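the two lines:
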Amino acid sequence: MEWRRLWTRLKKEPLALTSAVVIVLIVVAAVGAPLVAPFDPLGINLDALRLPPDGAHLLGTDSKGRDVLSRVIYGGRASLGIALVAAGVSVVIGLAFGTIAGYFGGKIDMAVVALVDLLLSFPSLLLAVGITVVLPAGAFSVVLALALVGWGGFARLVRGVVLSIREQAYVEAARSIGCSSARILIRHILPNCGALIVVVTSIRIGGFIMSEAALSFLGLGIQPPIPTWGSMISLNRAYILSAPWMVLFPGLALFVTVMAFNIFGDFLRDYLDPRMKG
Amino acid sequence: MTSYFLKRLLLFIPTLLGITFITFLLTQAVPGDPVLGMVGERADPAVVERLRAEIGADKPFLVRYGGYLSLLAKGEMGRSYYSHHPVASDIVEKFGNTLRLALTAIVFSIIIGVSLGIVTALKRGTWVDRAGSALAVAGISLPVFWLGLVLMLVLAGWLHLLPPSGMGHGEPIYLVLPALTLAIGSSSFIARVTRSSMLEVLGQPYMATAVAKGLGRGRVILHALRNALIPIVTLIGLDLGSYLNGSVLTETIFGWDGLGRYALEGITKRDYPVVMGTVLFGAAIFVTVNLIIDILNSVIDPRIRHSAKER
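prediction for all of em together
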């Protein structure tokens, strides 16, 4: 994609530009957490329990005297990392199933469509809960649960696109000069799904972040003491009336991040594929 | 038209049968043993065997599935492995609570969402439109479990307007916080869909005719709304369907004794009769709600009715 044109468009839309800046800041903070965080996120300090925000602890401290700002920064690392990896795995699974179903058609197509319909007919949060309950707790099982629940939507979309690309003249041409199915899929069809994949992924990243947070909130994500936004909200919610900063700030970080991804996703969609505007 | 809906009704039973089969298969295929979950890894093997026979885990898959179906035919769903309560009567009890919450939430989200959508569509391109659209994006991005806690802090903790959580003795005031929490997310979607659907209708020639023949502003809006209603009704129906299945996160925050928490507890404890019962009940609700949406849409738009008749 042409970066310069994207940048020109982005400069004209203050909301999308702001959200892009926010995303960059959050990603930088997450990646550089050890450099950015003022305190050790796991450092217990029994002399500083539930201190409200002040000069030393900008966002206050929690029930074990740990610095909330540092935990929010490290929490972003865990939450974003898991959501991005899960989205990536979903895209790969979705691409594989979607292209194969769309390209080969027939019985394979019917089987994939039935599988996806079945998957999408279960309530997604409860399905993810079911998967994480079965697997041993940890980052791997959260990624797996989110990916297994999330790939269906991608597969359905990719299949639709491949169905239309399959009939294009250049695919016909490739086939007539004797290209193998694998070569046609990889060299001719996949590159033409690129824009669609970028758009759909960027729109759905927010959803993955939200689902990871929901699983963490239910105690099924990365386990304490490692902070995630969802578990910080969950573990401190009993103090919502007496020490609200412990719940407000991780939630605010989650909210702002999801909103930034949603706004930027909408912008990318309008930019790359105005037909999808809806 | 009647035959069309009859056909849909007849499809109801095989759909539910398919769902019971798949859920049953999944609960069996999953690694881990519910009996060991009940008594712990180091329990006496004799006890484990007895419990296994009690819940029928020692019989082959198809026998157990057949047993479950014959239970269903009697209107039962088995008993919880833990509380030993009949699952069917538990579901009925929790569904009462969930139903009250769902209906209140859907009324809130219709009021907020449809009015926001109409206002932003009529004021298209102005600051009102931009503010409304920003609100809608914010509403979609709000994590429901955090929103619930924030509303609790503001409305109950600071302003003392509402009780913070729980169900009281069924007083309606306890419904307000959880219902509002649920409603904000879906009202944002409803607002978006209402806006785009209204804009589409407002651009139609018959709307220009309605204005030209001198209809009042209110009448014009109603005229447009009726024609814009189909996507809105569909969306509201889908939201209602998911509310009626219980909202795990909202019910957890507010200590609401509904279906969502019941299902969550069943899944985390591997209480398979509860899992089967809630999944089946949820699927039945979804199918029913979809049918109702279709009937409603054909009432709103006679063209749907007539095209169904021709089929």
